[in-house]
Design brief:
The protein is mainly beta. It is about 0% helix and about 50% strand. A hairpin with a 2-residue loop joins β1 and β2. It is globular.
Length: about 45
């Protein structure tokens, strides 16, 4: 059984039509503490 709750492999992150990040690799496991920071309006919202 995996404890992974979220994983991105080689993801591309866009804000509107603009490519912000490419080749993103993130793995978050159960019990991990993750803190996402950035300026207001920088696209931190997860839908």
């Amino acid at each position: 059984m995996s404890d992974t709750v979220l994983e991105f492999k080689e993801a591309s992150i866009f804000q509107g039509l603009s490519l912000i990040l490419s080749d993103v690799n993130v793995k978050i496991n159960k019990g991990d503490f993750v803190y996402l920071i950035g300026k207001t309006g920088s696209g931190k919202v997860v839908l």
